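Lab channel / #folding
Pinned by the channel admin:
"Please post every new chain as: sequence first, then the C-alpha coordinates as a reply. Keep commentary short and put observations after the output so the thread stays searchable."

First post following the new format, from NK:
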Amino acid sequence: MTRSAQEPRAGYLGFVAHEFRNPLATALWCAELLGRIPPEERAGARGAKLATLALRAVRRVSSLVEDHLLAERLAAEGIPVKIEPVALREVAAEAGERAAPAGGLSLAVPDGATVPADRALLSMVVEALVDASGRDGAPVRVEASAAGGALRLGVRGASQPPDALDLPRKGTLSAGSPRPLGLVMASAAARAMGLALRADGELLELAWPPGAAAERPGTSHP
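Reply from TO:
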Protein backbone atom coordinates (compact mmCIF):
# COMPACT_ATOMS: atom_id res chain seq x y z
CA MET A 1 0.00 0.00 0.00
CA THR A 2 1.40 3.38 -0.99
CA ARG A 3 1.84 6.22 1.47
CA SER A 4 -0.99 8.21 -0.17
CA ALA A 5 -3.30 5.18 0.16
CA GLN A 6 -2.37 4.80 3.84
CA GLU A 7 -3.14 8.40 4.78
CA PRO A 8 -6.97 8.11 4.98
CA ARG A 9 -6.63 4.98 7.11
CA ALA A 10 -4.06 6.61 9.38
CA GLY A 11 -6.26 9.68 9.74
CA TYR A 12 -9.25 7.50 10.63
CA LEU A 13 -7.29 5.60 13.28
CA GLY A 14 -6.15 8.93 14.70
CA PHE A 15 -9.81 9.95 15.04
CA VAL A 16 -10.67 6.63 16.71
CA ALA A 17 -7.77 6.95 19.16
CA HIS A 18 -8.83 10.48 20.10
CA GLU A 19 -12.45 9.43 20.63
CA PHE A 20 -11.36 6.57 22.89
CA ARG A 21 -8.89 8.64 24.90
CA ASN A 22 -11.26 11.28 26.25
CA PRO A 23 -14.00 9.09 27.79
CA LEU A 24 -11.40 6.65 29.12
CA ALA A 25 -9.62 9.49 30.88
CA THR A 26 -12.92 10.67 32.35
CA ALA A 27 -13.83 7.19 33.62
CA LEU A 28 -10.39 6.68 35.16
CA TRP A 29 -10.47 10.09 36.84
CA CYS A 30 -13.91 9.39 38.32
CA ALA A 31 -12.86 5.96 39.57
CA GLU A 32 -9.69 7.32 41.18
CA LEU A 33 -11.57 10.17 42.86
CA LEU A 34 -14.27 7.85 44.14
CA GLY A 35 -11.55 5.75 45.77
CA ARG A 36 -10.06 8.79 47.54
CA ILE A 37 -13.08 10.63 48.93
CA PRO A 38 -14.52 9.72 52.36
CA PRO A 39 -17.20 7.00 52.44
CA GLU A 40 -19.90 9.48 53.45
CA GLU A 41 -19.17 11.63 50.39
CA ARG A 42 -19.02 8.56 48.18
CA ALA A 43 -22.55 7.66 49.27
CA GLY A 44 -23.82 11.23 48.86
CA ALA A 45 -24.43 13.67 46.05
CA ARG A 46 -20.76 14.00 45.13
CA GLY A 47 -20.35 10.25 44.77
CA ALA A 48 -23.54 9.99 42.74
CA LYS A 49 -22.32 12.71 40.35
CA LEU A 50 -18.96 10.99 39.85
CA ALA A 51 -20.65 7.62 39.30
CA THR A 52 -22.97 9.17 36.69
CA LEU A 53 -20.03 10.75 34.85
CA ALA A 54 -18.11 7.48 34.91
CA LEU A 55 -21.09 5.49 33.64
CA ARG A 56 -21.68 7.93 30.78
CA ALA A 57 -18.01 7.72 29.80
CA VAL A 58 -17.93 3.92 29.94
CA ARG A 59 -21.08 3.70 27.81
CA ARG A 60 -19.45 5.93 25.21
CA VAL A 61 -16.37 3.70 25.18
CA SER A 62 -18.61 0.64 24.85
CA SER A 63 -20.38 2.08 21.79
CA LEU A 64 -17.04 3.05 20.25
CA VAL A 65 -15.66 -0.46 20.73
CA GLU A 66 -18.76 -2.15 19.32
CA ASP A 67 -19.10 0.12 16.29
CA HIS A 68 -15.39 0.16 15.45
CA LEU A 69 -14.88 -3.60 15.77
CA LEU A 70 -18.05 -4.43 13.83
CA ALA A 71 -17.02 -2.11 10.99
CA GLU A 72 -13.54 -3.66 10.94
CA ARG A 73 -14.87 -7.22 10.90
CA LEU A 74 -17.33 -6.42 8.12
CA ALA A 75 -14.58 -4.78 6.06
CA ALA A 76 -12.46 -7.91 6.49
CA GLU A 77 -15.48 -10.13 5.63
CA GLY A 78 -15.08 -11.69 9.05
CA ILE A 79 -18.81 -11.91 9.76
CA PRO A 80 -21.20 -14.14 7.78
CA VAL A 81 -24.06 -12.12 6.30
CA LYS A 82 -27.36 -14.02 6.12
CA ILE A 83 -29.83 -12.43 3.71
CA GLU A 84 -33.45 -13.37 4.34
CA PRO A 85 -36.89 -11.69 4.27
CA VAL A 86 -37.09 -9.18 7.13
CA ALA A 87 -40.19 -7.35 8.40
CA LEU A 88 -39.12 -3.74 7.99
CA ARG A 89 -41.55 -2.04 10.38
CA GLU A 90 -40.70 -4.47 13.17
CA VAL A 91 -36.96 -3.87 12.79
CA ALA A 92 -37.44 -0.09 12.57
CA ALA A 93 -39.60 -0.04 15.71
CA GLU A 94 -37.13 -2.12 17.72
CA ALA A 95 -34.16 -0.05 16.58
CA GLY A 96 -36.00 3.16 17.39
CA GLU A 97 -36.79 1.96 20.90
CA ARG A 98 -33.14 1.14 21.56
CA ALA A 99 -31.90 4.48 20.21
CA ALA A 100 -34.69 6.32 22.08
CA PRO A 101 -34.19 9.80 20.56
CA ALA A 102 -34.93 12.56 23.07
CA GLY A 103 -37.12 14.42 20.56
CA GLY A 104 -39.35 11.40 19.95
CA LEU A 105 -39.75 8.93 17.09
CA SER A 106 -42.50 8.45 14.51
CA LEU A 107 -42.82 5.54 12.08
CA ALA A 108 -44.23 5.70 8.57
CA VAL A 109 -43.44 2.12 7.60
CA PRO A 110 -46.31 -0.18 6.53
CA ASP A 111 -46.78 -3.47 8.35
CA GLY A 112 -46.54 -5.52 5.15
CA ALA A 113 -43.14 -4.30 3.96
CA THR A 114 -40.48 -7.00 3.94
CA VAL A 115 -36.98 -6.64 2.55
CA PRO A 116 -34.02 -8.95 1.91
CA ALA A 117 -31.42 -8.24 4.57
CA ASP A 118 -29.45 -9.64 7.47
CA ARG A 119 -31.86 -8.89 10.30
CA ALA A 120 -29.26 -8.24 12.99
CA LEU A 121 -27.18 -6.00 10.75
CA LEU A 122 -30.19 -4.07 9.45
CA SER A 123 -31.37 -3.47 13.00
CA MET A 124 -27.96 -2.08 13.99
CA VAL A 125 -27.85 0.14 10.90
CA VAL A 126 -31.30 1.63 11.55
CA GLU A 127 -30.44 2.19 15.21
CA ALA A 128 -27.28 4.08 14.21
CA LEU A 129 -29.22 6.19 11.69
CA VAL A 130 -31.86 7.05 14.28
CA ASP A 131 -29.15 7.94 16.79
CA ALA A 132 -27.42 10.27 14.32
CA SER A 133 -30.73 11.84 13.28
CA GLY A 134 -31.78 12.45 16.87
CA ARG A 135 -28.73 14.56 17.66
CA ASP A 136 -29.38 17.66 19.83
CA GLY A 137 -32.91 16.50 20.64
CA ALA A 138 -34.23 16.57 17.07
CA PRO A 139 -37.46 14.59 16.47
CA VAL A 140 -36.90 11.57 14.22
CA ARG A 141 -39.15 10.10 11.53
CA VAL A 142 -38.53 6.72 9.90
CA GLU A 143 -40.31 6.25 6.58
CA ALA A 144 -40.41 3.75 3.72
CA SER A 145 -41.16 4.38 0.08
CA ALA A 146 -40.98 2.55 -3.24
CA ALA A 147 -40.17 4.11 -6.60
CA GLY A 148 -38.91 2.61 -9.81
CA GLY A 149 -38.96 -0.85 -8.29
CA ALA A 150 -36.52 0.14 -5.53
CA LEU A 151 -37.41 0.27 -1.86
CA ARG A 152 -36.00 3.07 0.28
CA LEU A 153 -35.91 3.47 4.04
CA GLY A 154 -35.38 7.07 5.11
CA VAL A 155 -34.57 8.44 8.55
CA ARG A 156 -35.21 12.19 8.96
CA GLY A 157 -34.07 14.39 11.81
CA ALA A 158 -31.06 16.57 12.53
CA SER A 159 -29.30 17.96 9.47
CA GLN A 160 -26.21 15.96 8.58
CA PRO A 161 -22.93 17.57 7.46
CA PRO A 162 -21.96 17.08 3.78
CA ASP A 163 -19.23 14.63 4.81
CA ALA A 164 -21.43 12.67 7.22
CA LEU A 165 -20.67 9.33 5.53
CA ASP A 166 -17.00 10.02 4.84
CA LEU A 167 -14.44 8.19 6.94
CA PRO A 168 -13.65 10.60 9.79
CA ARG A 169 -10.04 11.61 10.33
CA LYS A 170 -8.02 13.06 13.16
CA GLY A 171 -9.36 16.53 13.86
CA THR A 172 -12.89 15.74 12.66
CA LEU A 173 -15.50 16.97 15.13
CA SER A 174 -17.82 14.27 16.47
CA ALA A 175 -20.68 16.80 16.82
CA GLY A 176 -21.47 15.66 20.34
CA SER A 177 -22.92 12.37 19.15
CA PRO A 178 -22.95 9.55 21.73
CA ARG A 179 -21.94 7.24 18.86
CA PRO A 180 -19.28 9.02 16.78
CA LEU A 181 -18.55 5.80 14.87
CA GLY A 182 -22.20 4.86 14.34
CA LEU A 183 -22.32 5.99 10.71
CA VAL A 184 -18.96 4.32 10.00
CA MET A 185 -20.47 1.04 11.18
CA ALA A 186 -23.73 1.68 9.32
CA SER A 187 -21.87 2.31 6.06
CA ALA A 188 -19.87 -0.90 6.42
CA ALA A 189 -22.98 -2.94 7.27
CA ALA A 190 -24.95 -1.47 4.36
CA ARG A 191 -22.16 -2.38 1.94
CA ALA A 192 -22.01 -5.91 3.35
CA MET A 193 -25.73 -6.34 2.58
CA GLY A 194 -25.43 -4.81 -0.90
CA LEU A 195 -27.38 -1.69 0.04
CA ALA A 196 -26.71 1.96 -0.76
CA LEU A 197 -26.55 4.48 2.07
CA ARG A 198 -26.65 8.20 1.41
CA ALA A 199 -26.94 11.41 3.42
CA ASP A 200 -28.80 14.45 2.11
CA GLY A 201 -29.41 17.25 4.60
CA GLU A 202 -31.94 16.00 7.14
CA LEU A 203 -32.24 12.60 5.41
CA LEU A 204 -30.23 9.42 5.92
CA GLU A 205 -31.47 6.84 3.41
CA LEU A 206 -30.98 3.14 2.75
CA ALA A 207 -31.86 1.90 -0.74
CA TRP A 208 -32.39 -1.65 -1.98
CA PRO A 209 -31.69 -2.50 -5.63
CA PRO A 210 -34.72 -2.51 -7.99
CA GLY A 211 -36.82 -5.62 -7.52
CA ALA A 212 -35.06 -6.63 -4.29
CA ALA A 213 -38.02 -6.06 -1.95
CA ALA A 214 -39.99 -9.18 -1.15
CA GLU A 215 -43.03 -6.94 -0.70
CA ARG A 216 -43.24 -3.30 -1.66
CA PRO A 217 -44.72 -0.86 0.83
CA GLY A 218 -48.15 0.51 0.19
CA THR A 219 -49.48 3.70 1.71
CA SER A 220 -47.28 4.70 4.63
CA HIS A 221 -48.94 5.35 7.94
CA PRO A 222 -47.58 6.71 11.23
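NK: The two ends are 49 Å apart (CA to CA).
TO: also worth noting, The chain has a mean pLDDT of 88.
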